[in-house]
Structure formats: C-alpha cells, structure tokens
Design goal:
Elongation Factor Tu (Ef-tu), domain 3, Rossmann fold, 8-stranded antiparallel beta sheet, Alpha-Beta Plaits, alpha+beta, 14 helices
C-alpha cells in the first residue's frame, strides 16, 4: 500500500513560452514514465491545437515514480502541467488547488514576466511551497545571475535554493526531482476519515461517459463503492478508479493525498461540476471541500450555428466542451439576423478563438461568432440596475440614467526603451496611469486602470508588436465606473444588423463607425441594387458608404436611332432595380463579422 508520506503533488507555473511543457517532458523521461522511443515534444499537450500553436490550453495530470540516489524508498510524484497564457488562468487556479507545491519556472534570457508574478501570487495564497527554477540556462543569451537577482527580490529566498536547469539538454532535472521530495510537504489527510475527493477536471469519452479527475483529500475510495457528488446529490457506482500515467491505469483503491480518475457511466454533463466533492453514500462527509471561486467571464460573444437545424448539436457540443473547459459559460439567446444561438462568456480573446477552433475540429460545428463585448451595468431613472452583455439588450435611451463599464488593473512589465509607445497605447485606450516602478536593471512595471471594453479586441496584439514581443501583460478585474457610452448600430439599406451593434465610448464612436462602414464596403459582395451602409447612434447617422449595384449594359443592342429608345430601356432597368431593392435582402458574410475584430 502506498504511504501518504511518499506522495508529492506539484504543478509547474510560468509565463507563456518559458518552457513548462519541455521541463515536464524531461521529468517524464528522467523518471522513466515515458520511454525514449515513444517520447515526443510536448508529451502532455494532447490536442493538435496545442502542438500547432506551441501553447498549453488544458492542465494535464500525470503520475511519476522516483527513487533518489542512495535511497531505497520509492516516491510517487503527481505532476499537473498548467497553461501560461493569461486567458487560461482559471485552469492554473484549479491545478494549484490540487497541489502542495509548485515549480516556478523562469526563462534565463527573459527574466520574471507579468504572468509569472500573477500565478505566483495565486500559488502563495494557497500556501504552496515554491521551488524556483531558471530554465534555458544552456542558451547563449541566458543571464542566470541577473534572473537570480530578480527571483531573490520577488520571493525573498536564498540564492542556493534556485535551481539552474535546461529542459532541452536535461541539465538540473535530478536536482529538481530531489528538491520536490525534500522541500514539498507530503499531502495532509486521514485515510480512515469519511471520503472527500475534490474534482479538479473532467473529460467526455463517447464510449465510457464522463471521466472525472480528482484529488483524495480524506478517506479512501475503492472500485465498486457507491459514491455521491455533494453539490448535485446524484449517486453512482465507482465502476473504475485508477491513476493517471500517460494513459489510465485502473487500481483497486486510492487513498488520501493521491490523484486519480473515476468512471461511473455518467452521461449528462451537468451532473459533474469542477470543484465538486465526491463522498460515500453510506458514510458521507459533513461538508464539501471549499473548491474554487466561481469563474468570471471577461468577454462575451454570440455563437450561432450557420445552419439553423444544428442548434441542438451546438448545445450538446458546448456542454461537452464545458466539461473539459470549466471557464466557458453559455446561455441561449436569439438574434434577428442570425436566428437561435448562444451567448458565451470567455476569459479573453485567445480563449474565444480556441473555443471556436475546438468546436470546428472536435465536433465539426460551423459557427458564426459576433463582435465580442463585455458586460455593462445600466441604471434606469427609477434607480433600478440591469446587467447587459449584449448591445441588443440595451433599454431605450430615454429610460437610461447612466451606464457603468468594467475596469481592469493592468500590469505591464517591459524594458525602459519601450515605455513611450506603451504609455501612448494605454492612454489611447482611455487608460489611467496608477504607478510605474523599476523592478531591476532597466526593467519596469507599469500599472494602468483601463476599461475592459478597450482591451478586448486588439490590445494584446498591439502591445506585443510595439514592444517587439518584450512586454508581458497581466490583468485582474477592478470594479465598475460610470462612463459616457453610446450604442453604435450598423444599418444596411435601413435594416439594422444587430450582430454588428457595439457599445463604445462617445469619443470613439464617429471614428469607429466610419472605419466599420469602410471595411464593410470592401467585404460585402455587390448586388443588383445599391447597398447603403450606415453607422448610427440612435436616429443620428454618423457615417455612410455605398456599395454600387452591378449593372448590365441594356443599351448595347441599340445602335443608331432616336435617344428616347435608349432612355426607355434605362428607365425600365431602373424600375426593375427599385423593385429588387424592396424585396432583396443583404447577406453579411462571416468574414465581415471577423473583420470588425481586426479593425486597426
């Protein structure tokens, strides 16, 4: 039987691109979990999307065995690899809740970045033991001494506690494994107490139903036990339990401190909630484990099936995706232009793009996504307040007293030579400078309060391009503030296209409306009649473009003769065009919706 004192649960936290997945690969090879011949880069990134983009989207759990040199005792190490991008920070928070320690990986050539700091604070809030690791020490551009200074300043640790490593060459892997055993405490818990397991992830398997990943906090779970899920109150038989190696290994029992999976033939996705507690039916625990805080979506967008009859398939696909990605939220909505669909909440723009891509690849769903926006608080003149996620849900202008929009506190870490352009970018996005300070050398941290609506669309891309990729960006919600916001509508031949409506600040409205009209003029295919594209605030038109009609030369067959013959044919054509305009409607292609996101 596995002793609890020989178990170590740890995760790897780092900024995007600092080499988490590579270090995880080397640890798996070093402990013999993955044989060299079946090894590949990014072993734990099992989605094609993750491999193509070189980013981790999901956290992944895997178990390794390790016996330190000169010792007889075998240790079991449960590694949970986590994403680094700010849009997937919820995945990180769930992994951290299932661990007692964390490897803090910092790139030797880039130093401490914004996301490193935010993930570190999250780990410290959960009282995790931090092991600092400097990765990529084999590179020519590595500056390990300078990075050591930054880590000592950030963590207040001793220099000799920092491990220098290289995921590429395998340098420092043994030191990391020994440090995990020596420094990270064994999980607490009581094998004899009533069962409490924390669900930190789940996946859908079309043959076996829903597979939940959990960490046993107290008690022991056996195959065949009758268990119940605390929050939903549903009861199941534990048909199969086991541990997670590269694939699933069934076992008879899993006791306190260890991480495993459970298959109990659950088919409905709403019955498994990440953060729920599993306990025995006969001897239940008194209270659920305090899991994670509820996820707060930052960006909302409508997702609609291209074919109306795919609506139910889209619902099923989103439910299955939500199992695997607990930070996705969705509610049904309908639109005049697009029919029935869902209003989805995402953590950011990359998250939205990944969800769209996964719907296409994993579930073969063709969807249209509307312009992303954030949630606003609308106060009416009677003193009531309503949360609005969608410009179409705005009350009449005459009833609104004022609107409040969400703000974020943005932390940007960069070198001093990019300060000017970054300041200009943030101030142009209606940002307010909170403070700026030097961290070390010529690296600075700038804190800004910026409206979330301003950074939703293209802020991150612009920041990366003006800083040549050197600025790192992280943010957290910072309350609501009153703003002068207006609803900008796009009209095609006088008909409003509600999927293109946006809420924007009054100072940006005219410029934004004009650019949208110009962009739509390029993208809309020409029809047999003129298409008037207008941007309007209420009843006031602020910009207009016209897509000219396609015309056949009806006078080509007239040669010679009186001019009235030509005029008669042109008049006949004109009447036909007028009739067409009355009954014709304009189809807006999907690329027009996407182009609005990429307005420069």
């Amino acid at each position: 039987m596995l002793q609890r004192k020989n178990i170590r649960n740890f995760c790897i936290i780092a900024h995007i691109d600092h080499g988490k997945s590579t270090i995880a690969d080397r640890l798996l090879e070093f402990t013999g979990t993955v044989e060299g011949r079946v090894s590949e880069n990014q072993v734990l990134d099992d989605m094609d999307l993750e491999k193509e983009r070189g980013i981790t989207i999901k956290s992944h759990a895997i178990q390794m065995n390790w016996t330190p040199r000169g010792q007889k005792e075998k240790y079991v190490l449960n590694l949970i690899d986590t994403p680094g991008h700010v849009d997937f920070s919820y995945e990180v928070s769930r992994s951290i809740a299932a661990c007692e320690g964390a490897l803090l990986v910092v790139d030797a050539s880039q130093g401490v970045q914004a996301q490193t700091i935010s993930n570190l604070y999250m780990a410290l809030e959960h009282d995790l033991e931090i092991i600092p690791v400097i990765n990529k020490c084999d590179m020519d551009s590595a500056m390990p001494e300078m990075v050591e200074d930054e880590i000592v300043e950030l963590l207040g640790c001793r220099r000799d506690e920092i491990i220098r490593a290289s995921g590429k060459t395998g340098m420092g892997m043994e030191e990391i494994l020994n440090a995990i055993i020596e420094r990270i405490p064994a999980p607490e818990g009581d094998e004899t107490a009533p069962l409490q397991c924390l669900i930190f992830d789940s996946i859908f398997n079309s043959f076996r139903g829903i597979i939940a990943y959990f960490k046993v906090v107290n008690g022991t779970i056996h195959t065949g036990d009758l268990v119940k899920f605390f929050n939903t109150g549903k009861e199941y038989d534990a048909d199969e339990i086991g541990i997670l190696k590269l694939d699933m290994h069934p076992t008879d029992s899993i006791s306190a401190g260890n991480v495993g999976y459970i298959i109990s033939g659950i088919k409905t996705s709403t019955e498994v909630k990440v953060g729920d507690t599993i306990t025995h039916v006969n001897r239940p625990c008194i209270e659920a484990i305090s899991g994670f805080e509820e996820v707060k979506p930052m960006v909302f967008a409508g997702v609609y099936p291209i074919e109306a009859e795919d609506y139910e398939n889209l619902r099923a696909s989103l439910e299955k995706l939500q199992l695997n990605d607990a930070s996705l939220t969705f509610t049904p909505e309908s639109s005049v232009a697009l029919g029935f669909g869902f209003r989805c909440g995402f953590l950011g723009l990359l998250h939205m793009e990944i969800v769209q891509e996964r719907l296409d690849r994993e579930f073969d769903m063709d969807v249209i996504t509307t312009v992303p926006n954030v949630s606003y608080l609308v106060y009416d003149k009677q003193g009531g307040v309503k949360e609005v996620h969608n410009p179409a849900g705005m009350p009449d202008l005459t009833l609104i007293d004022h609107i409040e929009e969400p703000y974020i506190r943005a932390s940007i870490i960069t070198t001093a030579n990019f300060i000017g352009p970054i300041m200009t970018l943030c101030l142009g996005k209606r940002g307010e400078l909170v403070k700026q300070e030097y961290i070390s050398g010529n690296r600075m941290e700038i804190l800004f309060d910026i409206p979330l609506g301003e950074i939703v669309i293209d802020f991150y891309d612009k920041l990366k391009s003006i800083s040549k990729g050197y600025a790192s960006f992280d943010y957290h919600a910072n309350g609501f503030r009153q703003s002068d916001l207006v609803k900008l509508d796009i009209l095609l031949n006088g008909e409003q296209v509600d999927a293109l409506s946006t809420l924007t600040h009054r100072s940006n409205a005219v410029d934004f409306g004009r650019r949208m009209c110009e962009k739509l003029k390029e993208l809309l295919p020409r029809q047999q009649f003129d298409i008037a594209i207008q941007a309007a605030i209420g009843a006031k038109i602020i910009a207009r473009e016209t897509v000219k009609q396609v015309r056949k030369d009806v006078t080509a067959k007239c040669y010679g003769g009186d001019v009235s013959r030509k005029r008669k044919l042109l008049e006949k054509q004109k009447r036909g065009k007028k009739r067409m305009k009355q009954i014709g409607n304009v189809e807006v292609p999907q690329k027009a919706f996407l182009a609005v996101l990429k307005l420069d």
